[in-house]
Each structure stands twice: as C-alpha cells, then as structure tokens.
Protein 1
Amino acid sequence: MKTSSCLFRSLAILSLGVVAIVSSARAQVTVSWGTESEGRYFADAAGSLLPEGSLVLLGSFAAATDFAGNASDYSYLSSQFTTFSSAFIGDGGFTGVDGALAAASVTSALNRQLSYWAFNAATTGAATEWGIFTQTTGLWTTPNDPFPSSMNTDLVDANVANIGSFAPSLDPLVPSLARTAILNLGPVATVPDSSVGLLNWFAIGATMVSGRMFKRRLGYTI
Amino acid sequence: MEKQDWSGAPLAYEVTSPASIFMSLASIRSQVKIAVYTRVLLLGLAGQGAAWAQSATTTPVGIVTVAPGSSAVTTPLFFYYGPPLAQAAVYEGRFTAMAGAVLTDSGASWTVNQFNPAVSAAARSHYIEVTSGVLQGTSFDVLATAASTITADFSFGNTSVVGSTYVIRPHRTIASLFGVTNQAGLRAGTELTADLIRLWDGVKYLDFFYSSAAGGPGWRKVGDGVTDHGGRVIKPKEGILFKFTGGTSPTLALMGELQGGVATILIAPGANFVNPVASIPLTLGTSNLFTNNPATGLKAGAPTTADVVSLFNGAAFDDYYVRSTAAGVQGWRKAGDVATDRSAVVIPPGTAFIVKRTGDPRAFSWKRPSLYTPPSS
C-alpha cells in the first residue's frame, strides 16, 4: 500500500489563515508572585495576618542596600528599590482571606533578584510596619535573556527576611501543616532582628494566631 | 486507520476564535469529512482481503499561511510557531512483525537506506508516525532501511506495534521549511541584525539565521558563522520561535497534511517547547494535558509546585496550571488568579507553547486529542 502523492492522494487544498500571535514589545518576563501556594502568609509583628487591602510591592533592591542600618528609614529603602508591580492582600482570588494574595506582573528587567515589600496598610504613608523578603538561590532572579519568558515565585520559597522574620508553623495542632509559616513585618520604629521577632511572636501572639490559623486552615485545606 | 464509524457523526467543534479562523474551519470540516468517509470505506475493503494493496488514503492536504505582521518592524517581533501540518507521507503500511527496534512490513519492497541517510548515522531524514494501536500518534526516526524492515530510533520495551498502521514522512529542515536561499524572506544579516529562528534542544535554545555575508550566504547558527545549518532537522512536534528584527515581517506559507488523529508528544522533565500540530484551536480543558494522573499528564498544585503551561499572549507569557489544594483539584487556573476557571483558554492553531514539567520528575506522553473527534452528545 505504497502511497504516491500523484496517484492516490486527494489534493484537497485548504487555505487556513492563522491569526499570528506576535509581540511588538520588548522582551518581557511574566512573574507570578504572592502566596498562591498558601504555604506562607503575610502577618504583622503581632502575628496577625495582614488584612485585605494591605499593600505588597514586587521589585528589586540595589545590591548594596543596607537593610540593617536603615530598617525604619522608608526614604532610604525606597531610594534603593525599583518597583515592578504592586498588589493588595486579597487580590488574585483571595477575597476574604487575610494574609494572602496572588498576582502576575510583567517586567522587562533582566537578571534582577526580586523582593516582596509588604506593608500593614493600603499605602506606604499609612503603614507603621513593613517587611522585606527575598530569595537568594536564583529562584527569584529574572532571566538574563532578551526573549519572552515567565517565572513563578511564591512567598513559601523566600529564604531571607531583610526586614522582619520567618515564623515556623502556626498550627501545632496540625502537624501536617508544618511548612506553614508567617512572616512578621518589622515595626518601623523598633525593628527586631529575626530571633527577637520570633520570640516576640511566640510570647505574645502564639495562642491567638494559632487558633486563628487553625480556623482558617479548616476553611481552605481540610 | 481509524476504526471508529464516523459516518453519522457531525464534525463540529466548539471554537471561540476570530471569525477568520472559524470560516476556515468550515472548509476544513468538509475536507475532513471526506477523508473520514474514505477511511471507513477502506476499512470495509480491508475486511474483504487483498484490497489493501490497491488502497489509498485521502488525508487532506492544506496550505497554512502565517503573516506575523503586516507593517514595518521597528522593535523585535516574537512569534511562537507550531507548524500545524505534517509533511506529506511518502509511504503507508502496517507492521507485521517486530524484533526490538527492527520493524517489519512484509508488504514493503524498499531499497536499502531509502528512508535514512546512507552515510551519517547521526543524521535523520525520515520518521515513522504510528497511526493506530497503542502507540497511535507516536513518531520516531528511521535509523536504517532494508527491503522490508526498518530500524527505529525508539525503545519499545514490551510494547508491540505489530498490526499497527503507520506512515513515513520526511523530516523538515531549516532549508526545506524556509528555502535553501531563504525564499521565505526572513531578514538576512548578521547574528545581531538578522531575523532569528530559535529552536529548543531540550536544555537550551539554539539560534539560527540567514547570513548575508558576502563570503558565503546561507543558514548559520549564532556562534558558528561558517557551517551550513540548513540541514538542521526540525522535528514534527518541535516549536519554532521567531524573532523578527526589522524590515517587514514575512508571510510564511506551509503546505502539508492535516494531522487530525491523536498526536503523542513527549513531555520531558524540565522545559518543553511544544508544537501540538493542531490546525484548529485547542482549549486547556479539552487538551488532555491534565489527566488527573501525574504519570500520564500534568501534575496539579500551585504555580511553584505544579507543571505549568506557558502561552504567549502577544506581549508576554501567561502561565496556566491545574490548581490543587488539600481540598482537591480545583481546575485550570492562571498564575496570579486562584479563583477563575481557565479551562476554556484557547491554544490557537499554528502556535507553539511551553510546558514546564517541574512538578514531577517523570516524563509523560501527552495524547493530544484527535482533531476529528466530535463533541460527545
């Protein structure tokens, strides 16, 4: 059953106009960011999840930024920060969920390490606390390639708290959620180091927040 | 051969696409219908004996025209191209025996090396596409050809293709697709000024361009301005990324066969640049990319834990995944929005996309569904 294109093939010539998907823009990197994995949430220094409407920025800090010496100096920090995008707690389908957001943003910045800068208010001016978190093993570094690409970041992968701290699981009653953690936003006036932040959190808010998280987890993951 | 009786089935598709595509589909439907009827007829003949020796297929042949842009290119234009038509088959048959990777068609009378280069073992000139049976839609290169046997570049394991039908198609190359002397009209120049053809080798992109150097125009690779790369094979399910750098973007015309049956596409761990070989729109929900089993399809989870499908929207990528939480599978979502169902998102015909298989370390074979299949009623 050899096929000959001349003898056996029905030459039904079709003409199909394909709508081209093209770009006239510069190479763009799409970054998904936030807490989409629900493995970590944003919380204030007292351990309370940030309320809906709280501001979170996506951007990149200058390499030589002195966080420790300027933790409460907004002017200095903002001068070191290039904002790529902003979103609010509750965005991306997390309506009614404190401490969580999901967003996707596009940037043309190449080879830049991304940071999340979270505030405990809807505007930077109204905020009394903030936290700055990043990831330093390359997961949050935009590609150095002038072609379109995408990358997925999530708070659960952050490994450095430039300002603020990481907390372990808030749900001692639910061991299966051991990866759950909350990031504390350092108070602007008295920014604690990580260990102090943890101690503060455990001493002041553990019981209250654990109960709250447990209740929330019941609503989302069980 | 298709073994389903299509004679009474309406060939309809649920398509949400521009009118221009929809009108074209009407034409395709009628042609596909003709082909399907013919296939049913051939099955009937086969059941009566020796008619196979005289049989023929009527797979529709088509021309797809792609015009990435009609105006002058002042900034780079990107286009993720998935050739939606297969090269016309040069042989059809049925496997009658196999021993390892050596496949026998007792009805064949080939010449030695007919479907493979005689000299270079590394080169490939033709591939086999299985058109029925358990490996339907799978394709693999021809390593050697004898009178009635072909050696395949494929590990069959315990899987048998005896009794399966197949076709043999020539590979496309850069030169065959765009012309030995760049008849497609891509912008020639240096690696910095020419239009780029970007191909994924499984680990990294390789960039090719048409050199206008006075010393020797031809197809070159970035980083290698001397060697002729016009013979670089473009596999049938391989995506092509264009970067148009200036001038007027060309119109690309592709002639080939509709590959309407199931297409089996390997999704390997890591990044995959996939051509679904689809001449009609697919949707995420009906793509069969997600099977609820990470051994046979995408893994669900969050964007950082799930496998991700990246579709170019004309300006940037949109990432899609199947969201799953402890409460169960939530469905297709776009990264950055956990609430909205995205199962109706369209993969346009003629486009390639990226699958990031990072949620699971195993490869799987994506069974791109048949384009002929009518919706279940």
Protein 2
Amino acid sequence: MPRAPWALMVAGFRRYATYRQATVAGIFTNSVFGFLRCYVLLAVAAGGTVAGYSGPQLATYVWLGQGMLAVVNSWTMLDLAERVRSGDIVADLLRPMDPLWTYLWTDLGRAGFSLLTRFSVPMVVGAVAFGLYLPTHAVTYVLTAVSIVLAVIVGFACRYLVGLTAFWLLDIRGVSMFWSFASGAGSGLYFPLAILPDWLTAVLWWGTPFPSLLQAPLDVAVERGGDGHAVLVIGGQAAWAVALLFACRIVQARAVARLVVQGG
Amino acid sequence: MASVLGVYAKVVRAQIRSQTQYRLSFAFEVFGSVIINGLDLATVFVLFSVAGSLGGFAGPEVFLIAALSAFAFSAADLVVGNADKLRDYVRTGLFDTLLLRPLSALWQLLAVNFAPRRAGRAIQGGIIYAIALVVADIGWDVPRIVLAVVAPIAGAVFFGSLFVAGATVAFWWVESGEVANAFTYGGNDFTLYPSTMFGDWFRTVFGSVLGFSFVAYLPTLALIGRSDPLGTPDWLRWCSPVTALIAAVVARAFWRLGVRHYRSTGS
C-alpha cells in the first residue's frame, strides 16, 4: 500500500483511539439500545419469524446493526463542512492529495478502530445475552467483511456529499438532519426493511444508497437468500460506492469552481 | 423574580432570532425534527401491523402508550434537551461565565442553547396524543381527565430530570455524552412500547428501578381501566407525578453536587 494512504489511515485510527472514555460510553449506549431493540423485535416475532427472519437471525440483525452503527458512523458529520465555513478548506485544497481521498483514508482508519472496539464488544454482549445466528457457510464471514467495508465507503461518500453542500448553504444542520433521518429509516436500523410493503422495499433498495449502509451487510451475515443473493447485494453496494464517490468528485469540482476565499 | 424571567425571555427570543437567520436550513430542521418524531411512532406502527398486537395490547392502547411517551419526551426535549451542551461548557471552561452571572447556571445554559426547531416536534406530539386519547376506549371520569392532563407533564418532568442528571455526568467525566443517551433516548425507546415486551431483569431495571414504566405504560393502564398483567398494584398506576417529582429532586441533587465538583479548566 502506498505510504500516504497508509499514514492517513493510521492517523484516523489513532485520532479516535485517543478518546477512550467516549469509546466506553459509546459501547455502553449501543449495548443498551441493542437490548431494547432486540426485546422488541423478539416480542414481535413471538417465537416465530418476522419477515422471514428467525429469532437468532433477528438477534444477529439487531446486535450486528448496533455494532455497525459506530463503524459506518452515519450520525457524525465529517468536519469538512466546518472547514468550508471557516475557509480552512483552502489549505486542504492546496495539498498534493485531493481532500476527498484524504478524508476517505482517514475515515477508513476511524472505521478500523471502531471495528476493534465499538463493533466487537456489542457483538459479544449480544451473543452472551441472546445467542446469535451462526453462518452455515464459511464464505459468509468473508462476504460479510467485504460488505461491511463497502458500507463504510458508501456511508463516507454520503456524508462527504452532505458536507459539500456547505459550499452553497454554509449552515448544513438542516441537510445533515435530513440525512440522519433518511439514513436511519432507510438503512434498516429500526426494523428490517423486508417488513415494509414490497414496493417501498424495492424503491429503497434500487433507488437509494441507504440499505447499503446497514441492511446489506446484515442480510449477508444472516445468509438471507443464500450466497447468490449475497453476491448480488454486495454488487449493488459496490455500484453505489463507485457512483457516490464519482458524484463527490463532480460536486466538489463545481464547488471549488465557485469558491470565494474570504478574508485576507 | 419577574425581571429575572424577563432576562430569560430576552435570551430565548435572541436565540430564536439568530437561529432562524438561515431560513432554508431552519425550515429543513423543523421539518426534520417533525419527521423524526413521526418515525418513532411509525416504527411502533410498522411493528404493530406485523404482529397484530404488541405485548398483549391492542391497537388503540399501543397507540396511546406510544403517543403519551412521544409527547412527554418531545416536550422535555424542547425545554431541557439542550442540557447536553453542558459537556462543551465544562470541557472548554466556558461554564465559568455561567457561574459568574447572577442567574441560575442551569437556566442560563438552557436559555442560551434554546433550540426553536424542537417546537415543531412538541406540537406534533401534543396533537397525536390528543388523537390517541379520542381513539382509545376510555371511560372518562374526573380522575381520568386529571390524569390525562397530568401524565404528559409528569412524563416531561421525568425526561427533563433525566436530561439534566445525564448532562451532569460531564462534571466528572467529560467525554461521557453517549452514556446519558442510553437513558434519555433509550428510555424514550423503552416507554414507547408496553413494558410487557421486555425481558425480565431488563424490565425490572428500566421499568421499575429507573421508573420508565411510570411515563406512559402505567398511566395508560389507568386511563383504559386495565390492571397491569405484570402484577403492579392498581394504585401505583396513578403515581407518575410522584415518580416525576422524585426524579426532579434527584436531578437537582446531581446538579448541585456537580457544580460544587466543577474546578474549571485552569486556563
């Protein structure tokens, strides 16, 4: 791996590794929500299935989702918007690497740290408290890992796009709130998307990147629809990742074209 | 007293003015806060429609529990939800400025950070609660009318106390933000559903020890005239104002302890 991306990833990892208290606090909160959501979904299943998910699959769906939450990190905006507002973005644009890639590598480093801490601990808690679904094929573990990485990239590209709106709006709180809503509801965080009417599920899967953030890796992990389906889901995530990064480039080019540096 | 209130009103008005300056963004925020509240209820609705009943309760009852919880939470969030800004004040030492002024530090904190966008959500919560009261099969009498009015207030005081108590954790533990969320937003999640849906020990901790069952579940049982299938004595169903009061006293104690413990940043 080239030196610069690696250095950026390490920097992202170390930046978040500094906040140990916050990590512990986050793990605790994610776990409490895991209990809340798991009890609710299991009560809905009442010993049977919900939208084709069995009890252990629902438990995995909830706890893997709680772990993924910090890894994908949809709720925390990049500091990009703040740097646009303050004008610091100019310094970023002068550097030899495009800020898009700088932010991406740093964010992957952050995700790596979250994977070790905020992902793994809730998974253990869920496994002990409820018992999770164990994949029947070894290849599922590999596919899940690939799907999680793609989810991180899709989540990053979306947040980068939200951040770029600061070039036009300056104050992105409204847009980021809308994003929090859409990415929460559309990604399957609150309930499996398959519960929704078929047409709505189809619109979400085909028309929006949101299911790629959570529902995709969760479905791959519980082996919903078999290996063929998993490959299809991962293909969809990859397509969204490429399309969104491409969109980031275009939007950023237009934003930079209209950039007026304030102050002297 | 009147002049003190006048100062607070001025600060809040200034906040409203400043935060509505970016109009498009503000409109987005109000809209967003309304749909996010709607989303909580929509989640309950979706899960209900899959199961046909939740925790042994039928539609109007589940709706009333969820609506009461959502209204209480959104009202508390409007007035006290910004207490979590405290950790920025403690981390940067800015809390000093609040202590120097001759007004209550807590109310200054709340007034200075007042977020008008949350009003949309609280109003929507109130409307939905009113609809839920109409839809539910309630044998109205004087105690029930009083309870229907008092229960959301008690719930809001309860959540408000949690917001304050949760925020004070920052006095001891600066990067603590998310721990409080487990009990504020997590508590909201718990109260949206009938307590019967949760596992034994978890329900004991959240529902009885922490008192979340008193926010929406038990008052709803009293309103619809049903005994608790979990065996809570009938008279306890009416006690949400008492638990709210206890929560407020505890939150106040936490706040005072925290302020005494505060040593600024030394810069």
Protein 3
Amino acid sequence: MEGYLRALFKNRISILSLIIILFVIGLAVFGPYFEKHDPLETHMAKMLRPPTAEFPFGTDALGRCVASRIIYGARTTLLAGLVAIAIGAVLGTFLGLVSGFYVGKVDNLIMRGLDVLLAFPYFLLAVVIVAALGPSLNSIMIAIGIWEMPYYARLVRGSVLSIKEKEYVEAARMVGEKDSSILMYYILPNCISPIIIMSTVYYAWAILMASTLSFLGLGVQPPAPEWGVMTAEGREYLLFAPYLLFFPALFVCLTASAFNFLGDALRDLLDPRLHMR
Amino acid sequence: MGLFQKRDMQRFIKILRFIFKRLFLMAVTIFILITLVFFTLSFMPVDPVSILCGPGATEESIKAVRKEFGLDDPAYIQYFRFLKNLIQGDLGFSWRSRQPVIVEIMSAIPYTVILAFAAMIIATLLGIITGIISAKKQFSLIDNISMGISLIGVSTPIFILALIFIYIFAYRLGWFPTSGSETLSHLILPSVCLGLFVAASIARLVRASMLDVLRQDYIRTARAKGLSELTVVFKHAFRNALIPILTIVGMQFGLLFGGSVITETVFAWPGLGRLIITSINFKDAPVLQGGVMFFAGGFTLINLIMDIFYQFIDPRIKIK
C-alpha cells in the first residue's frame, strides 16, 4: 500500500515537473509575443518598483521590466543548456562507443584522457575553458558541453560493454558487418534510452552551470537578459529590492528541480539499474 | 606465529605496490593536467603588455616588459620554461600585483582549507544522519520530505543559496556579517551554505547504500535474534554501510572544492577559489594558472589518499 502511495506520489511529482517544464518552455517560445515590455528598455522614472500590475515582477535598478527579462532569459537558458548537452552527448557518445567497443589500448587511452578531465573539481574545468575562450554565451555552451562529455562517455561505454556481448551483435559480426555499421546500427540504438534518461539530469546540471557561470560574470554578458546575470545585478539591491533576487532565483531552481525530479522518476521507471549516480 | 603473520606481510607489500603505482599514475595525471591548463590558457584573449604597462606606455618599457616576462618566445619554449620554474616552486609573477604567484596562492590556501573542512563536517553529519533516517523510515513522510528537500538542494545553485543566506541571516536578522574573513562569525554563513550544498548529495547517496545494506540477510538474522532495532541499525547495518558511505563522502570533495569557488566569491572569503575568479576578471593568467593547478592537484591528491585509505579499512577490496 505504501509502495503504491509512493508510486503515486512520485508520479504526481513527475507530472508536476512535466507541467513546470512545459510552462517554462512555453514561456520561452511564446512569452515574447505576449510581453509588451522590451527586456532592454529602461524606464528611468520607474526604477526599483516592487511588483505591480504594470510590471508583475517589478523593475530593476535601470527601470527594466523584470518579468520580460525573465521571459527572454528563459530562451537564453533553455537554449544554452540544449546546445551544451548536445555537444556533450555527441562527443561523449562517440568516445564511449569507441572505447567500449575496442577494449584495450584505445579504450585505455580514451578513459585515462577523460579521467584527466574528471580530475578537475566540479566546475573548475568549465571555468578554465571559459577563461580561455573569453566570457560569452558561446563559451559557456562549449565549456559545459566539454564538462559533461566524460559523464556521457562513461555512461555509453558501460552500455556498450554489456550490449556487445549480446547474440545479435555476434550474429552481425558473423555475417561480416563492418565495425562501423555494427556500432551505428546494432549498438548505438540500444544505448539511446539511457542517454535520453541521463540527458534529463544533465540538462538540469547544464542550466545550473550556465546560470552560475553567468552570475560570476563568465558567461552571458549584461545587459542581455539571463537568470544568472539578473541574480548578479539584483545582488546589489538585495536589501531594498529582494524580489530582484527572488524571481530569477525561483526560475533557475524551479526549472532545474523539474528536470532533476523528472530524470529521477524516469530512471526509476525505465531502468532501475541506473538508479543513483 | 608472531604478531605479524606472513599473510599480513604479503598484504602489506601488495598495498605498498598499489600505493606506488597510484602515485605514479597521479604524477602522470597532474603532469597532463598542468600541460592542458597551460595550453588552454595560452588561448586567453588577453594582451599581457597592456595589463603590465598600463595605457600610454612607451615603446621601450613595452619592450622591456615583453623581455622580462619572456612573452616573445614561442609557446613551447614558454611551456618548458614554465615547467622548469615549476619544479623549483616558481610559478611566475602576478601580472596584477607583481607578487610571486606562489605567495598569493600560499596565503589563500589556509582559508580554503578552513572553509572546506568546516563545510565537510557539516555536510557529513547532516548528510549521513538524514540519509540513515530516510533509509530506516523508507517511504514514510519524513523520507519523502527529506529526499524532496535534498533533490531541491541538488537543484539549487550554490550562489542562490548563498544570497538567500545573506538576505535572511545578514540583512534581515543581522546575526552574521555578509562578507569578509576577520572573525569566526565570518566563517559560519559560507561554511553552512557550502555544507548544505554538499549534504544534499551525501544524504541521497547514503540513503541508497543504507537501503542496500538493510535488505541483506545478516540484517534479517540480527532482527530474528531479537536484537533491538537501534542495535540492528547502528551496530549491524551502519557498520557495513560505512565503507560505501566513506566512498560517497570522499567523492564529494570535487563538489566541495568546486562549490567553494562560488561560496568564496559570494562571501568575499579570501581563499583559492576567489583568487581564481578574481584572476579571471583581471586577466591575470599566471595566478589563474597556478590557482587552477593547485586546486586540481590538491583534489587529485585527496582522491589518492581516499583510495589508499580504503585499502586499509576494507580487506575485501581487491588490489589489482
């Protein structure tokens, strides 16, 4: 009974997460058509206004509409996360496929190389890459992608190691299929579901990382609307205008939580073996 | 047989060999890491001369500075010179303060160590206690709530946690200072903030490994013997879960170190992480390079120590 309740609870949570995700995506895609304020337009007479009917989330120190900046910020954040995990997934999957398939020297070389990347504590690798490329939206997307690459590679390599022992792979080899087509048509399709499940979680990581880097001034540059940038700007007025922190922070946490909860539920549901990293 | 049996001796030698092998691997990793950082940062879009000389410098002083810092040499020569100096403990001079990089790093390290240590204690205690209670009362309200909170905790970027803390405890309640490092009360907000951030991950993982242990046969046996639930959980289950838990705690050092970069920056805590971020903002490449190398090198070293530690505490771990 309790197990059933928990399933229901988990399910309710994942439904809620899905609603939040759809809401944020909807906000990013359609929001700009409904928002009448320009996110960059300053209203000098209406600085630091608390939330009102005209400005539902208030205005910032330059009199810009916080709500419209949140909406346009959703576009930036969601897109940055998407590009980042795409970079990580493509590179990581390729390396994982190759290293899982060719056990031995190649495998060793790739995995040791990735170990070096993992030797950077948490987000320091992204910081180094951003420092080299200069702070911008493009750099953080590349940096986050490279940062997530080893995680994808390990995940895929693990799947490949078990899949390649399967009979259908053996059969394909007997028929004389080339290595490349075995990898592409027999092994890769069977790796897709763990990749997609974990991508939900990695997407949450990417969003968190993008906003953190932007908050530190290493990512998206002001005046562009982005949640991390907005938090950094709001920090100066924390005492007088806490809503400048509240709204961007709420959206970052809500979006990342939703993807994390969904990823968690998906892992439980589809593949109990992947449970807990 | 005496105190030392032959078997113990063999095991000891095995561990020694393992340690040397790992030390060698670590040296290789750190070397590759240093090389990687050096060449990655050589792409940094920065003209050191403009930082070093300031605007309106004469042709001559520019030339002198370029010569002094060896900026006209090709990258590989700069790299070998860097390695040579590194072996002698010389990381070059800061472009901003003109102080030796090693001095700046050494004065920052104690702050990072203090912060990381305090945060780790908070994270470990909180994470393990929450994890055990959750596992013991699996599916209960407490479990759901604490796991829900920890998942939200995992999804909250640490700078937001830090700013919320500053708003509530410094601005509204006025209990602690917002930033700085002069007194013990300056340490509390950053360490609690960083500790909570790491505790969220630890709690989730501890719960999983406790659940794993609680399902084992020997736990059922212990219960069947009529032992009290407290004895079962702490004497039988927790002891067996201790090794995975220690592994988990060890794995969180990366999160701890990375998180400290952000925490230090937000709270103006003068540690290594803040030094790294400031050096990026001032385009101070030598300090950035040295800071990152120390940070990543320290992290690798801690991983090694943890690995060796497991060899001693868990005889079941096979030595390859």
Protein 4
Amino acid sequence: MICEFASAMEVAVGLDADVARLRRGDLEALAALVQRYQHRLYRYLLRLVRQPAEAEDLFQQTWLRVASQIRRFDPRRNFDAWLFTLARNLAIDHLRRAHLQSLDEHDEDGATMTPAALRASGPAPIDVVMAHERARFVAAALDDLPVLYREVLALRFEEEMKLEEIAEVLDAPLSTVKSRLRRGLENLRGTLDARFSRTEWQ
Amino acid sequence: MSNAKKVNEHEKFRELLPLAAAGVLDASEEQQLAVHIGVCSDCAASLDRWQQIGTNLRRIPTPQAPAALVSRTVLLAQTRLTEESSRRTERRMMAMMLVFSWALVAISWPLAQLFAHGWESLLGFSFEQGWENFVIFTAFCWLAGAAAAILLAMRRSRQRRFA
C-alpha cells in the first residue's frame, strides 16, 4: 500500500516536473510526455473516431497543439484532463467536419469495427482466451455506441478518470456526466444482449 | 412501507446499479445500496451482471500507438515547440526595440539641438517654437526604423525560403 502510494507520488512528481520543463520549452520533456501518454491518448482517440488512420492524425495534431499552447496551461490544473480535452476537441471537430456525424446519433458502419489490438497474440491459457473473447464482444458493442457514450465510458473504464476529471474533459456538469455514464452502460448492455448470447459475454 | 413506495425505492436503486459498477457512487449512496442489496435478490443479481460488464470494459486490451507515429510526432512537436519559442523571443525583442527606439528619440532630440545650436538652445528651448522640427525629427526616426524593420523581415523570409 505504502509502496503503491510512493510509486504514484513518484509518477505525479515526475509528470509535474516534465510539464514544468515543457512550459520552459524543454524538448526532452516533450518527448518524455509523448512517450508517457502514447498508448492512452491513442486508445482514447481510437475510441472516439474508430479509424486507426484518423486516430493517428489526431494524435499528431494533439501534440502539435500541446506544443503551441503549453504556455497557456495552468499548472494548478490536471495535465491529464487538459491533454484529453485538447484531443477531444480535435476529435469532435474532425467528426463534425469529416463525417457530419452528430454527437448523439449512431454510426451505421460502426458495428463492424473492432480495434486491431484485440487480435489474440500467441497461445494463452483457456481462461485468458475466454476473458479476451468477452472483452472483444464488449469492445465491439462499445464501438457501436454513439460517441457521446463511447467517450464517457472510455474515460471512466479505460482512463480510470474520476467523475470530476471527466467533467473537466467534457466541459459538462457532474450530473450530466453521471447520467451519460448510466445511459452509456445501459445502452452497452442493451447492445450486448441484442447481439450476443448472455453466455458469450458474461 | 406501502407497495408503491417499495416499488419506487426499488426503481431508484436499480438506476444506481450501473453507476455502482462504474465505481462512481458517493459514500451515502453506496451505503444505502448495500442495505438494499442485502434484502433484494433481484438487485443483487443485476449488480453482478453490471459488474461483469464493468470488468469486461476494464479488460479491453489497450491498442498500441505505432512506434513510427510516436517518433514522427515527437519530431514534429519539438519543431513546433522550437518555432513557438523563437516566435516568443522575437516578440519580446520587438517590444524591447520599441521601448528603446522611443527612448532614443527622446534622448536624441536634445542632443541634436545641442550639436546644432549649442547650450543656449537647450536652456532657452520652448516647445511651442520647436514642435514642427520635433515632429519632423520623430517622423524621420520612425521612418528609418520602419525601413530597417522591413529590410530585416525581407532578409529573414529569404533565409526561411532557402532553409
């Protein structure tokens, strides 16, 4: 417990130091932050736009924006929330522009998309394979949800953000975040029940 | 407790179940739900299913950002950071030059008077008599400054084009 706390503190101190160095224009700090957030940010963008090529483009744009706007970042704020807000704004603009997809409407071809990383990698014990299979069903159902619910579920379950942090990223009140989270889960369960048998995903 | 009240309460707790699986209930909601779960087998079973969904959501493997994308992004972002930093330095330099040129104008006018007409002209200077000269002098200084700035900007843009 103490070790975990100490390690979390170390990460937080390291992150703060990197952000402070980046604000002073340190190129190495920028590289360290890109490395630190690479998979999380890419996963979040992939969750929002679903297409790897678009997620890659937005990933790049997000870091370019970080480089341009880091001086405007208030160090008292949470860097995670700020970074994900930048990424979200770019992704939402992109979705509006490229697909003319409204925030609360279903995308019809989304049901067939599954993240590339969900492919099985090498032999594994049967329970691990089963767990991967169930996660694959849930990932497919998650991809089928409107972006409004997809993003809130991704921020809570994948990024493990607190409600307050999610509210900051979405620029929405806590009550809205809670209700989106509940509706998102209800929608996800509805999709799972409709598309897969209960024994498949439970 | 009346039946209708019981149904209402049951519905209220059913709405909390997905949020419980997401781990976002506050302490009092959690406590109330725990008490309800103890007496309602329906909600207990439903909570199990919600938690299963939550577990599966947390188990979705993380897609890995391609290494080439990450290194390309680092390079591009570092270039942008350097550009931003030199742009800030240029802006700071411009502000300093502005202050410096005003100071130069303010200082050089009495000096020009001193060299042209000697000490007496400074001691007996009246702004009412000399203001036209002062305006011409200031305008000349600023025109010279503007010409220098344009020449510098042209040189810099030529350098950028060939870089």
